[in-house]
Structure formats: structure tokens, C-alpha cells
Specification:
This protein is of the alpha/beta class. It contains twelve helices and seven strands. Strand 1, helix 1 (14-25) and strand 2 form a beta-alpha-beta unit.
Length: 278
């Protein structure tokens, strides 16, 4: 991949693995040029090396220093510790891409040497299969080339959009956390199917295909979801009966509340790091 010679992941959680899988599958970089380490759990690193062939460095400071792109993939509460620990290994000529939810580019910049480009990314775990929805924004020192590298990197594992940083908490709440909302809904559909008399296997197959088909209808027709919903809903029919029950249970309000609460939590996480870093 042009613009990226070596990548170092700080953090070896599910998001790092999802990104690794997508990047290697799409041949954006070879495994011998990717280093991964975490704070604890050596067995986790062994798993990643066995599955993907990536490098597990003994000299972690050197791995950070030699990477032109460092991906900060730790939990928000661990960002300050990670950046403080490896601060002396960061230098101009590399870029940092942070996927820590709620952590602003300014907060990251305060913890590293001045002048290093920082890009904030909010992908989701669907990047494992090349279907991530990712939003990107830039910090003070990041230029067009840095943003383009990040855009190509995340476009290869799904779709990528560029937003202003003030929108990132909303992105985190919607597409970052969104897969969990969808999985929760599928769980409920499956259980309802079983309670209605279907086997678990049939309930799963029908739920997934229904979700898949509806998503493709939205993407391919580009019609408003309200319009597609109206076309499925016959007056006095079964769909109308089901929708009326969802409205009675305030389904739409529950979804809105989930997104807004997740947005609020994203802001809380960012504020905590901002206070600590001052």
C-alpha cells in the first residue's frame, strides 16, 4: 500500500484483529511488516501470530519507532498510559491513527511529541469481513496525505467517510456501536421465531436473510426506509399488526435513546482523558 511501509498495532483486542484480518485479506500490507503487542496476555499475541503471521516484537519501543503508521487500538481508559509509555518512541515522519472511542485528536496530541500527525478513526467490527463503516477526522498536524492514507486503509475494509471531529461522538454511537444493536435485534427475532414454533436453525436462517435482503433493498434502491416500510405494510395485515406493537412498545424511541446514550458515553470517556492529560 502506497504511503505505508510498516504498521504497528498498540493493542491486540478484537478491533485490532478485525483490522488485521481485513488488511491482510485485501493484501494492503504483508504480515512481516505488521507488528502487534499488548500490555498483558502473551497468549493472545501467540494466537494472532499463529492466525495471521504478524510480528510479535521483543523490542516494543523499536517496533513503534520503525513504524510509519502506528494504530492505537487500546481501550479509552488505557490511552494515556500507552502513549506515556511509548512517548519517546514516537517521532515526526510517522502518523498515529487512533481507534479509541471518545478520545479526541487533541487529547492524543497532548501526550506525544509535537508535530506528529494524528487521525481519529471510528470503524466497527464488520471490518473483519471487509464491510466496516468508518468515519475519519484529522488532528492539528495531519495533512492531506495522512488523511488519504487512512482513507485508503479503511476503504479497503469497508466504506470510509470524512467528518469534522465534533461529529465523531455521534459516529461512535451510530455506526461504532451499531452492530451490537443489530445483533441484539436478531437475537430477539430468533427467539420470537422459536417461541412462535420454528426451530432455532430455521429462525436463524430466516432472520439473517430477512436482514440481508432489507439492507440490500435500502442500498440498491436508495429509497427512503419509510417508503419501503409502507410498501410492505398492507392495511389491516400482519405487518401492520406487528408494527403497531413495536410502536406501542416505543421501539423507535428505544433505538434513539440507545444512540444518544452511547454518544453521551463517548463524550464522557473523552472528557476523562482530557482532564487527566492536562
Amino acid at each position: 500500500m502506497n504511503g505505508v511501509q510498516r504498521i504497528c498495532f498498540i493493542g491486540a483486542g478484537s478491533m485490532s484483529e478485525a483490522m488485521l484480518a481485513g488488511l491482510l485479506k485485501n493484501r494492503l500490507i504483508t504480515a512481516d511488516r505488521v507488528s502487534v503487542f499488548n500490555r498483558h496476555r502473551r497468549e493472545r499475541l501467540t494466537e494472532l501470530k499463529k492466525s495471521y503471521g504478524v510480528q510479535i516484537p521483543e523490542d516494543r519501543g523499536r517496533a513503534v519507532s520503525e513504524a510509519d503508521t502506528v494504530i492505537l487500538a487500546v481501550k479509552p481508559k488505557d490511552v494515556q498510559e500507552a502513549l506515556t509509555q511509548w512517548k519517546t518512541s514516537f517521532h515526526r515522519g510517522q502518523r498515529i491513527i487512533s481507534v479509541a472511542a471518545g478520545i479526541s485528536t487533541e487529547a492524543v496530541e497532548r501526550l506525544i511529541p509535537s508535530g506528529i500527525p494524528v487521525i481519529r478513526a471510528m470503524p466497527n467490527t464488520s471490518c473483519t469481513i471487509g464491510q466496516s463503516a468508518t468515519a475519519l477526522c484529522t488532528g492539528r498536524w495531519a495533512g492531506p496525505e495522512d488523511l488519504e492514507v487512512a482513507r485508503r486503509l479503511f476503504s479497503a475494509i469497508g466504506s470510509a467517510v470524512i467528518v469534522e471531529e465534533e461529529a465523531m461522538d455521534s459516529v461512535t454511537a451510530l455506526s461504532g456501536s451499531g452492530p451490537a444493536y443489530i445483533y441484539f435485534m436478531v437475537e430477539a427475532l430468533e427467539q420470537a421465531g422459536v417461541e412462535a414454533g420454528l426451530s432455532k436453525e430455521i429462525a436463524r436462517q430466516l432472520s439473517l436473510q430477512t436482514l440481508f435482503g432489507a439492507a440490500h433493498m435500502l442500498m440498491e434502491t436508495r429509497e427512503e426506509p419509510a417508503e419501503l416500510r409502507r410498501r410492505v405494510t398492507s392495511p389491516g395485515g400482519t405487518t401492520m399488526a406487528g408494527l403497531e406493537e413495536l410502536k406501542r412498545k416505543r421501539f423507535d424511541e428505544a433505538v434513539k435513546s440507545a444512540v444518544l446514550r452511547a454518544k453521551s458515553r463517548s463524550r464522557e470517556l473523552g472528557s476523562l482523558l482530557g482532564q487527566e492529560a492536562k
